[in-house]
Amino acid sequence: MEDKEITVSLNAPIKVRLTERGKELYIKCMKDIDTNGVMEKHGWISPKIDKDGYWHSQLWEFCQIFGSEMHDGNPGPVVCENLEIIIEKQ
C-alpha cells in the first residue's frame, strides 16, 4: 500500500519563481527587518534569482515572508504552475 503522507522539514531547501508582487513583498520584508541599513548597504535587499529564474530559500523563510499573501483569490507572490513549491533534494 502506498504511503499517503510525506514528512518535510521546515528547513527543507525550496525554489520558486517569484512574481513581480513576490519580489516587491520580499524587498518590503527585508527593508522592515533591516533597521540599521546593513542589509541594504551590502545589497542584500533584493531577492537573488538564479539563471533559471528561481529564488532559493528554506521552507520556513518562504512561509515567513509570503504566508499572509497565500490565499484563494489572491494573485500571489509566486508563479504557480500546478500550485507547486519545488522542494530540493538534500
Describe it for me?
This protein is α+β, with helices and mostly antiparallel strands and 90 residues long. Helices cover 29% and strands 16% of the residues. Strands 1, 2, 3 and 4 form a 4-stranded antiparallel sheet that branches. The radius of gyration is 15 Å and the shape is globular. The two termini are 26 Å apart. It has one domain. The model has no long low-confidence stretch (mean pLDDT 83).
Question: Could you write a compact summary of the structure shown?
Answer:
The chain has 90 residues and is an alpha+beta fold. It is built from three helices and four strands, in the order βααβαββ.
Helix percent reads 25-40%
Shape: globular
SS element count, helices: 3
Q: Tell me the radius of gyration.
A: 15 Å
Give the count of structural domains.
Answer: 1
For the biggest sheet, the summary is:
4 strands, antiparallel
Overall average residue pLDDT: 83
Point out poorly predicted stretches.
Answer: none
Order of helix and strand elements from N to C terminus: EHHEHEE
